[in-house]
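Q: How do we represent a protein-ligand complex in a form that can be generated token by token?
A: Start from the inputs.
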Amino acid sequence: MSAEERVQALHLLLHEHAHRYYVLDAPSIPDAEYDRLFQELLALEAAHPELRTTDSPTQRVGGKPLPFFSQVRHAVPMLSIRTETDTESTGAEAFDARVRRELGFSDTDPQVEYLAELKFDGLAINLRYEHGVLVQATTRGDGETGEDVTQNLRTLGQVPLRATPSAYVLPDVLEVRGEVYMRRDDFESLNERQRQHADKTFVNPRNAAAGAVRQLDPTIAAQRPLSFFAYGLGEVRYADPATLSPLTQHDWLRALASWGFPVCTHHLVASGASGLVHFHQHIAALRDQLPYDIDGVVYKVNRLDLQRQLGFVTREPRWAVAHKYPAQEQLTQVLGIEVQVGRTGKLTPVAKLAPVFVGGVTVTNATLHNELEAHRKDVRVGDTVIVRRAGDVIPEVVSVLAEQRPPQATTFAMPACCPVCGSAAVREEGEADHRCTGGLFCSAQRKQAVLHFAQRRALDIEGLGDKLVDQLVDAGLVHTLPDLYRLGLTALAQLDRMADKSALNVLQALEQSKHTTLPRFLFGLGIRHVGEATAKDLAQHFGTLDAIMSATAEQLLEVNDVGPVVAHSLRTFFDQPHNCEVVAQLRACGLTWPEGPALAAQSLPLKGKTFVLTGTFPTLSRDEAKALLEAAGAKVAGSVSTKTHWVVAGSEAGSKLDKALALGIEVLDEQGMLNLLASLK
Ligand code: IVH
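Then emit the structure tokens for the protein with 2-(butylsulfanyl)adenosine bound:
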């Protein structure tokens, strides 16, 4: 292929991918791959300048706006920024050297001062304030013209609708530029919600944010958890042109923060290239712990007069540069799909990948969550996929490059049996997950169950980690939890990497764990939906393990925060003879805990009665009211149903009160509740 033909091919590819990325919010290749193609085109154009045409993807900033939003011409163009992909020192040094040369500095001139910032991975937005009031929000679009997304941006809590006056004089016209992004935890819960509703999940936080901003229905945009950081300015006009305005980028950030704009605190005034290198390294180490994605850092000449002096080359300022980090998304091949078994028997399909360096580590596994997700993404063995790893989130297959699929690739099917123990695998109605029904007979579940039992918040058996548990279960030494307490020194010491000393330590830790508490023991059993808090509530309510084990579902429902799902799960667990046998044997091994008086056994006056609290009370806090009712034996529930006996309503009570009235449930105010409690004494 000639250079000319390759350039043509790259134009087509890059136009297509830029359109998918900017306009459709549905990229089909990772950014790193796009960058690679873009770099290839840049290199070809550098070698053959005659092939660089005005319609080349290298000659414009982004995609054309969607036709649906009205288009707005930017008062000041929204520029792009030059990207360095060099190593940390050469990137910063090359930038510093260029700046010094263009400013006409010699070696004897002082260091240039920079402001180093994070490069947020979201989408750029221009917010226009007139006389302190937000009047318009626009996307970058092609840099000259953007889309009017004011309605959507107004729904963002972090975007001030009105700038707060401060010691800095507020300009009459103030355009604040910054990045709309989605935090990783918000992104995870949004996708979890989408999954539960069998809706399409988002590829990454940036695309979820972009999709929300360009959502035509602002009520949907309002439900998407978006965040914003301000980092720059568009048009700025003061009522009095003689007003002293900030003189540096750093001072502008301070002014923006003082007016109520969210400004990221991770920035640094750096002297010369060495300060920039330091910032780059510091942030690289911090990157995984940040609650949002960044794709690099940005260096800006701090003084605005120097920025003006440096000016622009085509669409990029000479005074700023972006320095990228390794990509968090990469292409790789699916070598196989395995099914892993969790503690509660959940079967998770996991893609085995050709090793790929992504997000700073080598990744060989990526979760596919469940069968539904695997099918929705249609991941097949042999496929080329995009994997993503950001922060400490488990690596995930984002999507498949369908056009690169080998002809013989077969779809994934969840096995009918557990791959570890062979028990039936079932999917309950309304649930996305398949589960192994083998319970503690399944060695994979047993390993997880032992680890759960031994963890700090449960029986706290020090030294019983996953390597040891693997060996104990695989060697057949531990079948059920009580087997732990039957381990002898000889058997333990024979295991891999187990000296007499460490074997003794494990035995000692086991011995110590025998004196425990009822909540820890109950939590340690690993009953589905019974977390630490529920275990505490159960122990407090029933007082003894026997009372819990023999409680009916109705009795269990009387416990605070125990709903039908938890009650059902407890009953199912204790209805299985082998689970009761495990409990009996653990007790026989010497496990003990103090047992208290059953709260339920005392005949409290409001036992069996359910209350719902709503609104604000004149004297009591919500927690105080709850505590008073619970002390009288009542259950305080979160929502009104036909099972509710009383609703206690304060001021600004909303839908719960409406529902109570509709169902004919007796409503009390605070005084009415206090009178009721007093009458019981
Ligand atoms: S300054 C004239 N600062 O990176 C300089 N941009 O091409 C204009 N970005 O999509 C950009 N973090 O949205 C600047 N701290 C930061 C940034 C940042 C992220 C994005 C920006 C634009 C791209 C620049």
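The chain is about 35% helix and 20% strand. The first strand starts at residue 71 and ends at 73.
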